[in-house]
Amino acid sequence: MTSSSSVGERIPHAYATYFDSGYLSRGLTLIEGLRAFGDDADVWVMCLDDASREFLDGLDDPSIHTLAIADLEASEPRLLDVRSGRSRMEYVFTCTPLLLRHVMRAQGDTRTVVTYLDADLGFFADPLLVHRRLGEGSVGIIEHRYPPRLARRLGKYGRFNVGWVGIRADAAGFECVDWWSERCIEWCFDTPSEGRYADQGYLDEFPSRFAGVVVLPDAGFDVAPWNTGRHVLSRSSDGTVVVDHADPLVFFHFHGIKRRGRWFVTSQLVYRSPMRRVLRRDVYVPYLERLDHWDAVLASKITPVVARRGKGLRGLAFNVARGLLDLGSILSGNAIRSRRPG
Questions:
Q1: What is the DSSP letter of 307?
Q2: pLDDT digits over 308-326, tens only?
Q3: Which of 45, 134, 212, 281 could form a disulfide with 172 if both were Cys (CB 3.0 to 4.6 A apart)?
Q4: C-alpha distances in angstroms, 173 versus 125, 159, 237, 262?
């Protein structure tokens, strides 16, 4: 399926993402954001539990295609060989390029760009602005754009963020996604090691290893808690959000949002970037209102599974530290009060 757009010609494309019932409200907010700008492209969702798949299938939306990890395992049996040695999230990360490849094959058109999206992205302008930046390229990736004060500490997680990766279903695109799939089967862990990190660190090799790789430069792409410290967000006369007085905010990566009782706690303080007025009023608040809406819709329909990241003592230490930081976020104004009970 193609999408009509205010920014120009039709660009054949589709999306791929994954989430479980604990992230279902985020996934629905993501899809709603795409549709708000007239993007009716197919969205393929790898559902990580039965509840999320049953809900999406119940929408009876022909543009939403659901599948399970078992569907990828059927086409790539080596996945089962590595499953027991990886945490739940590490195993899901292992599947990222295989999901992309699955959708690229299913779409069946070498012109089609299949874009992996993290479920916690929110769109504020036409998604095709990003695709048009890719042009005739085969692979599109976006830098983290860490501020200098964070670059040394966070550089181990890779130059590029895996939250938005677009790959065209042509020969160059398949060469890239095949290589990426092989690497993730070999090694995909939630601890940086020798230039690798989960499914994300491998993106660093794309520009030097493959033809047709485009590093998408716009400041309005993948703005996130880790890079708001290096950008200026302002509100234009027509109410849209502008980044660095030049580029429209196309999508924001709402990484790390946690619901704590009546509060949505952001991860802005994790990256030492306290919220300013425009970021709060024009980015977080409208997104969280829609997230709140979907949480309310789902409350009487499913009991979400909330999976904690990490395992063992490392996971425990992470969750304790994050709990203390969440309290600090609430006290310092880096959390937003929900309109419904927790």
A1: P
A2: 555 666 666 666 767 778 8
A3: 212
A4: 26, 20, 40, 44
Q: pTM to 2 decimals?
A: 0.92
Measured distance CA(120)–CA(114) in Å, rounded: 18
Token readout for 273 is: 């970037």
Q: With a cut of 90, say whether residue 13 has pLDDT above it.
A: yes
Continuous H helices in 155-258:
171-186, 206-209
Whether the Cβ atoms of residue 114 and residue 14 lie closer than 8 Å to each other: yes
Nearest partner of 158 among 119, 110, 197, judged by Cα? 197
Query: In this model, does residue 8 exceed pLDDT 90?
Result: no
Q: Enumerate the β-bridge partners of residue 2.
A: 12
Spell 274-305 as b/e; 16+ CB within 10 A means b: bbeebbbebbbeebbebbbbbbeebeeebebe
Supply φ then ψ for residue 108, to 5 degrees: 70, 30
Q: Which two tokens stand for residue 245?
A: 């007085």
Given a contact cutoff of 8 angstroms between Cβ atoms, the answer to whether 11 and 131 are in contact is yes
Both tokens of 254, joined, read 């709402």
| φ/ψ (deg, to 5) at 256 | 85, 10
Mean pLDDT of 181-193: 97
Amino acid identity at 83 = R
The DSSP bridge partners found for residue 42 are 14
